[in-house]
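PT: before anyone asks, these are the final sequences, not the draft ones from last week. 543 residues across everything. Please model them as a single complex and drop the result in this thread when it's through.
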Amino acid sequence: MARFLSLAEAVQSNVRDGDTVAMEGFTHLIPHAAGHEIIRQQRKRLTLIRMTPDLIYDQFIGMGCVAKVVFSWGGNPGVGSLHRFRDAVENDWPQPLAIEEHSHAAMANAYEAGAAGLPLAIFRGYIGVDLPKVNPKIKSITCPFTGEQLAAVPSHRPDVAIIHALRADREGNVMLEGIVGVQKEAVLAAKRSIVTVEEVVDDFGERNLNAVILPHWTVGAIATVPGGAYPSYAQGYYKRDNAFYITWDKVARERETFLAWMKANVLEQGPEAFAAHMRRLNAKAA
Amino acid sequence: MADYKPNEMMTIAAARALRNADVCFVGIGMPSAASNVARLTHAPGITLIYESGTIATKPDVLPLSIGDGELCSTALTTVSVPEMFRYWLQGGRVTVGFLGGAQIDRFANLNTTVVGPYDKPKVRLPGGGGAPEIASACGEIFIIMAQSKRSFAAKIDFVTSMGHGEGGDHRARLGLKTKGPTKLVTDLCVFEPDPQTKEMTVTSIHPGISREEINDNTGWTVRYAAHVVETKPPTADELTVLRELHARTKRAHGAVA
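LR: through. Structure below.
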């Protein structure tokens, strides 16, 4: 049942050391504010699931919160490497990082299987490639009807799923539209969930009848954080700050500049910083 | 003839390979530029799909990521990511997958995972993303990559996505009915697979490029088709479309000092 909490309370009561945490948002609606709050609360030994780790997991990894990542593409989209991710894999800094690597198709199928309450996902994939040689979780299964060999991976069943959505209503129903990624599947696959939203409205009013709605009884905690996806975006609220993604490459390249940036922009800030980012971005666009 | 750069020739040669009736699964970066040039020139009816779920998108500027808002707001429809990979890609509804890579071998197998051993990589690259299944499920694959001895390697460190495997009928032996890589467009030339061996073979050389340059920038002994043609240089219209697209994109993303 959805409970309206502050972001700090939501993280406090839902994310524990050693948890498996899935933070989703496929380029759109990435829950950056929630990520910063977890880093501020210094959670440790997390297993992080995410299709595209990008900046949000680069920050977790560099701050030493992570034991393992389960992922399918670890880069800064359109820009290049994730330097903190690379430093952890290549040099064990700030600590060794275990990786469980998949393809996008496998990850999407594994979330869907988790939401469907199945133990595994089956799909046609990984044909002629090397990932099954280095990831023992990738297996094959024979179709009992046709004899076709198909790929099988375990379903994702995270302890906590964290997403950012456009709106919630007073009852705690959650709505998202646009590029909806795997967020619905991630929340339904998880034991607990945190949803940050741009705003809470009395009523969703006129809407696309096929908008993605998570009914209030499928959602754990809801925290209102305007701008909470920045530098990702929220369709209709603010655009993706592509310039920031380009800047991140410089910030994260060296350990010192990264740590200084995290101190000034995460450790010494609160969730309200995100509303300021959004206002600045929208003022620039106007 | 207009003055142009090698990477402009590459993008335009790749764009020409796309047809108006194609349904194209687009990778970010150079594949995205080439696909949109095709849409804005000879293939206005092409369906462009990005893995974020956007189908038949018509971006005015090139997206920095595969999920920029521009892709969603100009798309015919946007589906969830599981649906994208299950119904549309695995379902066999995509005619062309358009990929790039860090390393390629002579059978067009691609590596975007690691340089060096997997467990102790010298360089950890982003990984496969959608590529492993794009490479097997699309009707055929076009690849666009700038050529160099390092990236065109005799042996790649990791097979992220399968091209023609070990060559010959390797794909068929694994049960694949799709064609695999049919075109590899570089800044120097165009390769196509030999019908029997499936080794990528030069069929067209860009204007002003010598065989020696191609050989010097390839990590294996390059084969040439019996009849190699010269690539048609970019037309003024193609160059204008490409340059305006890049200029609009640069303005939109706001390059930061």
